[in-house]
Amino acid sequence: MEMNEGKDLRWFDVKNVPEGYIFSKENRPQNLDSPVSDSIPVIDLEKTPIEAIFKASQEFGFFYVINHGVPEKTTNDAINVMKEFFNMPSKDRSGVVLNSKNWIYINSTDFEKDGVYLWRENLKHPCRPLEECIPQWPQEPTRYQEIIAAYIVEIQKLSLRILEMICKGLGLDPGFFNGKSEVQILSTGFYPPCPDPTLTLGILAHQDPSLITLLYQGGLAGLQVLKDGEWINVGAIPNAFVVNIGNQLEIISNGKFKSVLHRVVNSKHETRRSIATFVNPSLDCIIEPAKVLINELEPARYEASKYKDFIGRNKSFGDHTTALLNATPSDNQA
Predict the structure, then answer these.
(1) Which domain of life is it from (predicted)?
(2) Which among 22, 116, 150, 330 is least surrounded, fewest beta carbons within 10 Å?
């Protein structure tokens, strides 16, 4: 197990799971030892993926993308600088947080659900407007700002590319998402080895309140998706991203696409690090079913709503909600 500079024991350096991290029997993870599912679509973006993305968004709400154009060096640098951040002494991580209101470092005991803590640490911060956000990010490690800024630029390009394919698949006008999408939040997870992963969770079951979320898993599994009432294990394909459909895209598609429940489980022997980027509408953007998808046979299934009002009403996003509401200045336009 990792230790703080090899000197001090950290909260996860224990032989047994502390009581405060043990979930009730009905909420504990299942199928930890089940094989990784081979049914989740793997979509090669160098080919013609529009039909494949449409089908995956309908049937799963999740898919991998490969040959996506993000340089491997960019993803490796990003996951490595996150490793450096979480390896810093806890006093250094927490001390920096106190100097900024716009990003949040969460230790394992800073967030709880029904009195139980998650087996993880987390760092999240806003990414838009990028040039204004960069100086507010962690200054340690020293290369953090440069590396994560380069990562966000690549994710923005990839997200627009994927959304444009979704646009074509749905029959929407080209550029439909140009004024409705931005890489708004970056959230990184640190999931250290757990003495008994059957008792704990890394992230609670939830849906994402985004358009889409792009997840880089750093080569280690741990993500589970609810499919047909059963939790299935999502593997970690090297240099691939997991893309999942968020609530806002479900609304825009008028229910053709589904935002599905997912969660993170822990490992007994491995440390998992992941980077999730939430591609959201701006807070004042009005989200509603696309007009071209509405007719007498297919009436609107969702009411129009400002994005900030939607996330304000839906508190099931756990510790993401406050960060989303504080993610962008109030005068941002859709």
Answers:
(1) Eukaryota
(2) 330
